[in-house]
Write a structure and sequence with these properties.
This protein is α/β, with parallel strands linked by helices. It has 3 domains: about 30 residues; about 200 residues, 3-Layer(aba) Sandwich (Rossmann fold); about 150 residues, Response regulator (Rossmann fold), CATH 3.40.50.2300. Helix 9 runs parallel beside helix 10. The longest helix is centred in the first third of the chain and has 28 residues.
């Protein structure tokens, strides 16, 4: 009788131990921070749906549509995305207000692809103090790549400095004895480019750069700067200006009959806002660099990734203007966010989401140019650091040459 009781007790003890281990295992498998449950992942966003940058509002609409598609396909590891996107009108005080609301009232898991350098600068310290991911920001400033001081902040698109380095590599290859002039906006955007060019030129910067000329965004015309730069006899003109001034520069150079190699920031590659006002003939031959496919360009009609994008637009954004690069951009960013969440599995903590975002290896969103891939690491918070050169010909941008990487010495 005693032995039976002992056996029973032993079995019960074994079952109890097994149950305890199993429940510990279950706990180990699922880890959640605020904004996550067995059925939902809450993602926050702020976008300029109104105000001076409202043209970018379509990015938020594209991402919302993309997450709807993912939810229709069953979500991510069985969890649906609840995308909460607010308008900040591209105004830093409103950004602060909306980000606080997302984090403190809505209790989102993270904030994804929020727009704008001045607006996101206003909340960067708050995000990092709260340890809430400020992930894949929609801004080209290079300062988002600072994992040491801001481990909860990461950019997405190639930074201004990345593009500047690629321009510098192209100049060194094509015109090793160039006489370069740099025309730039006297702000963080302009200075980022100048720094990037000099990083690649290195010791040669002093001999290659014959003049640096800055302008203020309050100037009505930049014609006098262009005349001054032409007089240097330079054969390479690096144009780091916003659309209005880029158009003025192209027009004035044409009037002066000055035809140096002309490299222009991708901030100003809009055909409608820059090339047409400057004159399509005057714009012929201008160089820039890009990383996104143009959905309106027939060269991509048989491309597998573009077919996926077009099917998505047809079903989830009918009537949208596919020639607007903000759509292919929003699609690529959302696809990258989904990849990171998939990599998290059931460990949906904010710490793990940053760890996974910093562990992307050769990830290729469908709307990026073939060969350009997303790569990150614990000390590299710049997801896209490759571009392809392009030239304005016959009224459109044509890609040419190999993919160029921005690494110094790479």
């Amino acid at each position: 009788m005693l032995s039976m009781t002992t056996k029973t007790l032993s079995r019960l003890a074994a079952v109890a131990v097994f149950t305890a281990l199993a429940s510990q295992g279950a706990l180990a498998q699922k880890k959640y921070d605020p904004g996550v449950s067995d059925t939902e992942i809450k993602i926050g966003n702020v976008e300029a749906y109104s105000g001076p940058a409202s043209a970018y509002g379509v990015i938020g609409k594209t991402e919302d549509a993309y997450f709807k598609m993912i939810n229709d396909q069953g979500g991510i590891n069985g969890r649906k995305i609840n995308f909460i996107s607010y308008d900040d009108g591209y105004s830093p005080p409103r950004t602060v207000e909306q980000i606080r609301k997302l984090i403190e009232s809505d209790e989102v898991f993270l904030v994804f692809n929020a727009l704008g350098t001045p607006t996101q600068t206003a909340v960067q310290k708050y995000h990092n103090a709260k340890k809430v991911p400020q992930l894949f920001l929609a801004t080209g400033a290079s300062k988002w790549n600072d994992p040491k001081d801001f481990p909860w902040t990461m950019g997405f698109q190639p930074s201004y400095r990345v593009e500047a380095r690629i321009f510098a590599k192209y100049i060194l290859k094509e015109k090793p004895n160039a006489k370069v002039v740099i025309f730039y906006a006297n702000d963080d955007f302009g200075k980022d480019y100048v720094a990037g060019i000099k990083e690649i030129f290195g010791d040669k910067a002093k001999s290659l750069i014959v003049a640096e000329e800055s302008y203020e965004t309050t100037e009505p015309s930049i014609d006098s700067h262009i005349v001054k730069l032409k007089d240097t006899g330079a054969d390479v003109f690096v144009n780091i200006s916003t659309p209005k001034f880029a158009a003025q520069a192209i027009k004035k150079m044409d009037q002066l009959g000055w035809k140096p190699m002309h490299l222009m920031t991708d901030v100003s590659i809009s055909i409608g806002a820059v090339m047409k006002p400057a004159g399509l003939d005057a714009s012929e031959g201008v160089l820039s660099a890009g990383y996104l496919k143009d959905a309106s360009d027939p060269q991509w009609k048989d491309d597998a990734g573009m077919k996926k994008f077009m099917a998505f637009v047809e079903k989830y954004m009918p009537g949208a203007d596919v020639s607007d690069t903000n759509l292919v951009y929003g699609f690529a960013a959302a696809q990258t966010m989904v990849q990171v969440l998939k990599q998290c599995g059931d460990n949906l903590t904010r710490e793990n989401v940053m760890k996974q975002a910093a562990s992307l290896k050769d990830f290729a969103p469908d709307t990026l140019i073939p060969g350009i891939k997303v790569n990150t690491g614990p000390t590299d918070f710049a997801p896209i650091e490759q571009l392809k050169m392009m030239q304005f010909k016959g009224g459109k941008w044509d890609f040419f040459g190999d993919i160029i990487s921005a690494e110094v010495g790479g």
